[in-house]
Amino acid sequence: MEDKCFLHEWSSSAHVRCNEARNTSPGVMKSFHGIPSPPVLLPITSARDKKFLTSIEENIKSEVERLSAVGQLDAEQQYIIYGQAFDKVIDYCTDYKRLLTAIKQEYDEFIDATKQGEINAIHVHAKLKKLASEPTTLMYYRKRAAELEDRIEIINKDSIRIEKELQKLKDEKRVKTPPIEEAGPPQDEIDPSAPIPGMTVEDSLNMAALTKYQQLLEEKKRALKAAMKTKYIPIQRKQELDVKLCTALQERDQVELVNQRLLDSYRKKRIIADTIASWARSDKSVSLYETLAQMAAKENEMKDDTSSTNVFEDLDPRKSQEAEALLEYVERFNELFVNGQYKAAAVCAAHSPRGILRNMETMERFRAVVVGKDDVSPLMMFFEALMESSSLAKHPVNAALTLEAIQCALSFEKMELVVHWVTQQRITFSETLGDVILDYGDREPYHKVTCLALAQLIYRKCSSLRKAALSMCLQGQIQGALDYTYQSKRFLLEDYLFLLKKCPTAELINGLTKEWNGKPAVLSVGQAVLSLLCTDHKEYGFQLLESIYQCGEAALEQVILNDVVCTPEGWVEIAEECSNNDYRQLSEKIKSIVISQDGVVEISSKDEDAKMMEHVFL
What we know:
The chain is an all-alpha fold and 618 residues long. It has helices at residues 2-22, 26-33, 47-69, 75-92, 97-174, 201-204, 207-230, 235-281, 288-297, 299-302, 317-338, 342-350, 360-367, 378-388, 399-411, 415-423, 431-443, 448-461, 465-474, 478-487, 493-502, 506-513, 525-533, 538-550, 553-562, 568-580, 584-595, 606-612, 614-617.
């Protein structure tokens, strides 16, 4: 209604200006018939329009200055600022809302297509670069292949030479010829002036130093002889142990076969004994022979009974071997952790069998490690290894560790890791996790859009309907949020009120108080306004009533009379709030409509009630 008035005033003003132009002197008319003068925008006569445009301009100016001060003003941020301003204009201009929404949608699709084109161009450029480097890579491969062929040829020649020497030694041993001792250098060929290894020239001329050095060499000689007796054994001993190991393995296999036959025999005898005992306790209406025949018929089914093997379960050697393997794995992890090899220890813990090290206790050990500011956090290493070893189909990280991992990554400002973990579904989704990411977006406006998208995904995965819809509304996806809420059968009235209080926008209020795709409105106008009055966003409720009242008194009266949810007392409360917030005309109109209903009278104040009822008690 207000937009129509604005257009009518603009057309009337334009008509008046044209008449004034016709009545001006010929000299003045030259500006119309000569060089055309620039068009002049008509002034905005409505004070509400001026206030709205001024607020939009101030908002744009403040956002631009704020982002420029922190160095984050780029083309994308400017697009977001002006896009939000355009959305407010669309919400304000209700008569042209559909046309302006279609225009904005076309611009958004064009911008998305441009961004996708840039991404495709980057991919094509990378492919071209890869294709261009293929000839050079092939040349290097061929060169490397030629070098390896030369090395193989040298190795083959050495192998042939060594084989000949080995064959010669075998022949000499077969003939039992005494080994040819290599003749050492004659004493007269030793250069006495050569320096002694391990000694300086001054020490080699000092008798005391020479004596000390000789004693050191003798001690090393005695240590080597002792080591030869205690630390080394002949190779024949290894061969004997290998033979013993093979014999032990064969004996184990034979014993397992015997053990299996004994288990089968035990199972059959136990079945027969149980059958005879049950027959003895019965009334003996069926003969023992028939009972045993029935037992024989069920023998194949009893073969799958694993309870008989439970008698020997504690004696199974495989379980002890598995326990020893787990203990050895834990000892390996402790060794890596104590030696400061935190990355290797993190990988070891992440891939631990049966997940024995994928727990909060292991995490606390990594958290307790203190490192320098420039060093990588061991706790972060543990979480990265844990996430890389997890997947949706195979033991994803539990909810407690997931929450700790996300908080740790956010504390180190590794938002890309959080996005990767959530989108790859390597974690356990929970409502608390979505709250943590949403709070981080509130603290870091630069990542707010990303955090809202991640929180929406998490809330939908863990079936938190109201918070998923709230995330969509905070991203500006009001239409999508309304579709989501109307399609969900579990969205209750308190969920809609939760949305209204947390994200009170004009578009959302209109969607909740009007029909949606043939479905009735979930909230009445009075119910929505009363809910907003309990929050800090009561101005949106007054704006809703103002927009209805500007369409005519009949429209407001129809809304109040058709509201079956909000009682007349509720509308009286709304009228009082309007009066307290300088909407006196609207308040008086609401009161008059409520009072005019059948059976509704105006309630006076408490003092007047006391005076009216004073004669009753006298």
